[in-house]
Design brief:
single chain
Length: 255
C-alpha cells in the first residue's frame, strides 16, 4: 500500500475496527485495559454481542472466559468472540474451541480506493439509507440475518444519525434486494454487514454495494478500505473486486 507502513496498515486492519459500532443506549460497552466487550440484550439472536478484544493473563484466562460466557447465557443471547493475532493467551482460540464454540475463519483484507468506474447495470440502483428508506433496509437485513427487525430498526436509527456511519440499500428493478453498511474512521473506511436476499443472488448486487461504498470512501477523502471477511463466502468475491488478504483471524459463535 502506497504511503502506509506495515504498523500503520496493521492498525487500520485490526485495531481501529474494534470501534466499528455506533454507541447507543441499547448496548453496554465493557472496556478496560486488554478487554472490549459488547452486550446488547435486545439483539437476542446476534449482533452487538461480542468479545471484541481480549488480552488475558494465562492463569486467569479460563475464569474470565467462563464469566463472559455465563453473562451472555444468563441473558439468553447469541454472541461471538473474535480472536485476532494480538489477543492473548496464545492458545485463546483453542480454549474457546474446547468450550464447544463454532469456529469461523476470517481474513482482514484491504484495498486502496484508486480510480473507480461508474456502476452501469440499469437493473440495480444503490442508495444511502435515510429515515424514509430505513424500514425497507431493516426488513432486508432482518430477513438476511434471521433476526428481530424491531431492535435492528432502533439501532439503524442510531446509525443513520451518526455522521461516520452509512447504510446502503440496493434495489433490483425497484425491489429491495440487498443492504450493507460501513463506518468511516480518520484514515480508512471499514465495510460491514453485507446481505443479499437469496432470490436476488448472482445478479451483481454484492458487487454494487462494494462499489457504492468505495465511492463513499472517495467522497470522504479516504483512500483505504478495510474489511474482515468470511473466508468461505465473501473473501473470494472481494479478491475479485481488488481487495488483498493481509492477515487471518477467527471468530467463534456461541449459541
Amino acid at each position: 500500500m502506497h504511503g502506509w507502513s506495515d504498523d500503520e496498515l496493521r492498525d487500520e486492519l485490526l485495531i481501529v475496527p474494534r470501534l466499528a459500532f455506533v454507541p447507543w443506549s441499547g448496548t453496554e460497552v465493557i472496556e478496560r485495559p486488554g478487554w472490549l466487550q459488547l452486550i446488547t440484550p435486545s439483539f437476542r439472536l446476534g449482533g452487538l454481542n461480542e468479545v471484541v478484544y481480549a488480552q488475558l493473563d494465562e492463569h486467569d484466562a479460563d475464569a474470565v472466559i467462563d464469566a463472559a460466557i455465563a453473562r451472555y447465557r444468563e441473558l439468553g443471547l447469541r454472541f461471538r468472540w473474535t480472536v485476532t493475532p494480538e489477543c492473548r493467551p496464545a492458545d485463546l482460540a483453542t480454549r474457546l474451541e474446547q468450550r464447544g464454540f463454532v469456529r469461523i475463519e476470517l481474513v482482514a483484507m484491504v484495498r486502496e480506493v484508486g480510480e473507480l468506474s461508474e456502476h452501469d447495470d440499469p437493473d440495480i440502483t444503490v442508495e444511502i439509507v435515510d429515515a424514509a428508506s430505513l424500514p425497507e433496509c431493516t426488513a432486508v437485513l432482518a430477513e438476511g440475518w434471521a433476526t428481530d427487525p424491531t431492535a435492528l430498526a432502533d439501532y439503524g436509527r442510531a446509525q443513520i444519525e451518526d455522521d461516520r456511519y452509512a447504510l446502503f440499500l440496493a434495489r433490483h428493478r425497484g425491489q429491495p434486494a440487498a443492504a450493507a453498511g460501513c463506518i468511516a474512521f480518520e484514515r480508512s473506511l471499514f465495510l460491514q454487514g453485507g446481505v443479499v436476499l437469496p432470490e436476488f443472488r448472482g445478479r451483481g448486487l454484492y458487487r454494487a454495494l462494494v462499489h457504492a461504498r468505495l465511492h463513499h470512501a472517495a467522497a470522504r477523502g479516504l483512500g483505504l478500505v478495510t474489511v474482515h471477511s468470511d473466508c468461505s463466502t465473501s473473501a473470494p468475491l472481494l479478491e475479485r473486486f481488488g481487495f488483498a488478504r493481509v492477515v487471518g483471524l477467527v471468530t467463534f459463535r456461541g449459541d
